[in-house]
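Quick illustration, no need to memorize.
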Amino acid sequence: MLHVGGTTIPVTPVRVSAPAKVNLALAVGRKRSDGYHDVTTVLQALELSDTLAFEHASGLQIEYRPGIDVPAGLDLVRAAALVLAEAYGRAPEAAVVVDKRIPLGAGLGGGSSDAAATLVGLAALWGLDPGEDELRDVAARLGADVAFFVSGGCALFEGRGDTFARKLPVVPMDVVLVKPESPVPTAEAYALLDATTRSGVDVRRILEALVSGSRSAVASALENDLAEAARTLVPEVGDTLAFVCGSGGVLGAAVAGSGSSVFGVCESREAAETCAGTARERGWWAASTTASPVGARVLPGT
């Protein structure tokens, strides 16, 4: 930032990091009258992230790299820009470049995180100064998970998965992510869950594990109501989960969101990297990363 005559001017481009996430626990209730489900979930941000760059422009221009074509209905960056501009009564004018590292259709929250990063980046570019609570309220209009990425770290969310309940301790963890080729259709996963008996995830287990500060306790408490539906719809998710669970140094594993990614909490960075390397040899996308205490944030030098 530059400070001129008492005015703060952002150095362009404004660059923002948009982290991935995993659901350490995901409990899904019955379908509500509004078509959504009651959700109680514990979300943990990761160091793996997309990077977004924002500059002044006439109109709204958005580019996804490398060469990714995001359908208009799924373009949460555009949706976030329009919502923020409307909330503050200004024109949605900016050029946005999104460098994608988080795979699409993975259950890792890449689109939602990009939306939160857009709110953070454009607020800086446009000279707005919303508080975290205010920005989270704007984010909630964009769908589940977006509000989480405004602050990141580890947090409990309720409602449709978009209502902030409270911050939770971030336990230092090395994490491996493995994604099979086929995505899981989220709507079908919820529909299948509605037609079957739920496993009954008890979120209190993960809350107690986080308070203990033990990564082993966290790994033992991982639960996801959508896991069985994901495995049924895309059998390769089950193969991936079995692979991660059976890898050396993996303390516990679960499906990320509705899938198709699987994540494992590992005893060390080396174990995470070894598991990721072996997964890539099998033809799967994979990465090793760590738990992050932050959400979407403006990068140094802006």
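The first strand starts at residue 2 and ends at 4.
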